[in-house]
Amino acid sequence: MDDPLAHLPGYALRRAANAMMAAFAARLAAIGMRVSDASVLMLVAERKNVTASQIGRVLDIQRTNMVPILNRMEAAGLIDRLPLDGKSLAIVLTTAGIDRLTQVRAIAENFEAELLDRIPAEHRAHFVPALHALWR
Amino acid sequence: MDDPLAHLPGYALRRAANAMMAAFAARLAAIGMRVSDASVLMLVAERKNVTASQIGRVLDIQRTNMVPILNRMEAAGLIDRLPLDGKSLAIVLTTAGIDRLTQVRAIAENFEAELLDRIPAEHRAHFVPALHALWR
DNA sequence: TATTGTTATACTCTATAACTATA
DNA sequence: TATAGTTATAGAGTATAACAATA
Hints:
homodimer; 7% strand; mainly alpha; elongated; two-stranded antiparallel sheet
């Protein structure tokens, strides 16, 4: 049965995002990672001495929900929590974290390239600018 | 802090979809509706004697997860479940369901128009085609 | 006084397994 | 034999409230 809601931009946005997320999650699951783990890993790699609260503000994850993510990554030996002062902790990658980052980047770059490739050429350059207009 | 992942199409897709969904859910909450309720309501209006399984296949909701949605809508007096044969049930709108549909459509049409309006004119016509390429 | 990290908790959405009855 | 509807349950993401300690 065809979908009578498919023409609605918001509905199509949700369906496309859900399909994309499921596919990306499946690829990350192959190396035991979740999407949130991967985004934290990539962000920490780009920001020296970033705190959990700062990560949460950038990725739109409440700091209370950062705790289980960082606990899981610390338990996996991917990150350390180092005191910056008496209150804040710097999240830094361990050697294992840097190795894992290499894997995550390979998966992500591959995935993003394939995603863009699926968009017909005449629409491709308009995609990210349109999304940014809705979000940033 | 600026977001070093913002340039990634998949990441931007997720962030835009999340922002859009939160805004749409907030508007529907004003009339006591959830996003899934609203999409079911609009689909049922377009398809005569549709079953729960068919709704699930179109909207990508497993039939097991259709049960609480339809229970909630039935308890709210928005739908009836009428036997089609000994096995299947037709989901049909009640009078209250038709009234609620009018409200939902007003909210949805307003929301979708505002969403499109936020996209710069030169990107607008490319948006839904690009999303369809990723999903359908 | 605002912020950081944390615990506890609840709600929504989604996923799997299993069962009954009917096409 | 495949499908419809359902129950029970578990996982994952997300939300609020509250607290101690520090800037």
